[in-house]
Structures are given as structure tokens and as C-alpha cells.
Amino acid sequence: MTQSRTRISKAVIPAAGLGTRFLPATKATPKEMLPVVDKPAIQYVVEEAVTAGLSDVLMITGRNKRPLEDHFDRNYELEETLTRKGDDTRLARVQESSDLATMHYVRQGDPRGLGHAVLCAAPHVGDQPFAVLLGDDLIDARDPLLSRMVEVQEQHGGSVIALMEVDPAQIHLYGCAAVKPTVDESVVQVTGLVEKPDPADAPSNYAVIGRYVLDASVFDVLRRTEPGRGGEIQLTDALQALASDPDLGGPVHGVIFKGRRYDTGDRGDYLRAIVRLACEREDLGPDFRDWLRSYVTEEM
Ligand code: G1P
């Protein structure tokens, strides 16, 4: 078992997807830039990485993703205008995203799947364990998951995935894990993985959600991974290889997540995330909740 000695510091965020479910909003705007209340979805994800201690962030981008780089960079013109107006609150909000993390970018070129996107991170990551955060999954900041996964990786070595129980009828939308219990009831050993199985063939109702802490041996496995489901190189297939042969790069464990997760890649869930987070905001919440209450009682 390969035990990590250096604290994990690098996060990889694949962000090359086309966002076709949100057309036409995503025709000229990356889906990661769609606002959740008043922050682009991707900023929540970078904040989550930083909160878990991962302040070196590599984004895997593609064509038409320039706004992502601009968002995490300085905007001197805007900063100067706000400074001149003495609008310190907005100035701080503008600077927040550029001060957040050390950002790096690499372009995926050919969109050959999530596994291929992660492989694009190999030169930057080197041989240390690293995290992968999928931008479509928002994990509520009050339900920390990634920091727990980092702890589990430091304890067991190998790789750690995040699992959530879903309705068996929904399992075809996710990677699915076969698991064995460990002494810790929130951690399981993963014995097998299958990408988006038919419900009849699913080994469990444990769905893989978009947070991973991976041993760097996953890169070698990905180089050998043939295209799988949808003709794409699947990260799930590489993790299946690791789970079935721990000699390749340590075991695969799963952290069972029971907190709040929003799939902002789905329009319904995206709307639910906005309503929920807006209701809970100190500045917007009180008015918005009043309006929502009367809207629901009077109009629905
Ligand atoms: C990806 C992964 C899948 C995982 C899901 C979580 O699928 O391939 O294993 O369950 O993210 O959101 P996607 O939703 O990108 O098709």
C-alpha cells in the first residue's frame, strides 16, 4: 500500500464539457459560469477545494472556456472603477475569486471523456495523490466531504471516491460501486465499479458522485484504458482496474456522503440549488423567503 507523506495540495477540475443541457444559455457562455444566486457555479467548487486545503487548482478546459480564466484573474479596470467609487464591498467580491487559489489551465483538445480529461492533468500533478472535483456537482459547504476524503486517503493510501445512496431507478445516471463494509460505518472498501449500469445489472445503489482523491497510479491505468461507455475513456473504468488489483496503486475506498448535493448540470436541480441557497442567504433570504411563501400559497 502506498502511504502518502506529503499533504495533498492539488485539485483538478474538469471543465471542458459543452453544457448542451443548458442551451441556448451555454451557446457562448461556459456552463460552469452560470450563476448560482450571484456566483458562478465553478467558484463554489474552487472554494470547496480551497476549504479542504487544496489551493493549487488545475482546470481542464477547452474551446470557448476563456471566461473561466478571466473569472479567476484580476480585472484591473473594474477594480479601479470600484476603488474610485469607494465601493469596497463590491471590490472585495471582485477580488475574492482572483485571490482564492493558484490557478492553472490546460486544454483538453479532443473531448474523449472524463478519464481522458483527468489524464491531461498528469504532467501538472506528478506522482502525488490529488483530488478531482466535477463542476456539475455542488456540495453544500455546510456538509464537508472532500476534507473527510483526504483524511481517509491519508489513513488508507490508494484512492478514495465519494458515494451516495440513490433510488435504484436513478443508478443508470451514475458510476455504481460494489462495496464491502469497514470498521468505520461511513467508509466502505470498493470491490468493483461500473459506469452507468442498467438498474438490473447494478451491483448496488451506491452512486459515484463527483469528488475523488486519487493515487497518481491512476494515470498509468488511464493510458491503458480503452474507450468504454459512450465511446469515451471513463474514469470509472480506470478505478475499476485499481479496485480489482490493489497492487496497481493501493485500494479504493468510498466515503458515504449523506449531506446536501446539487447536480447543477440538471436544470431542475440547478433551480432547486438556487432557491435553497438564496433562502439561506443572510442578505437575500428574509425577503426572498417571504416572497416564496406567498408565491407557493397564492399561485400554486
Ligand atoms: C460522471 C462520471 C460518473 C459519476 C458522475 C457524477 O458522469 O462518469 O461515474 O457518477 O459524473 O456526477 P457524467 O455525469 O459526467 O456523465
UniProtKB/TrEMBL annotation:
Source taxon at top rank: Bacteria
Pfam family name, one: NTP_transferase
Occurrences of domain Nucleotidyl transferase (ranges): 10-275
Protein name as annotated: UTP--glucose-1-phosphate uridylyltransferase
Keyword terms, alphabetized: Nucleotidyltransferase, Transferase
InterPro entries xrefs: GalU_uridylyltTrfase_bac/arc, NTP_transferase_dom, Nucleotide-diphossugar_trans
EC number: 2.7.7.9
MF-aspect GO terms: UTP:glucose-1-phosphate uridylyltransferase activity
Family: Belongs to the UDPGP type 2 family.
Reactions that this protein is recorded to catalyse: alpha-D-glucose 1-phosphate + UTP + H(+) = UDP-alpha-D-glucose + diphosphate
Taxonomy of the source species: Bacteria, Bacillati, Actinomycetota, Actinomycetes, Kitasatosporales
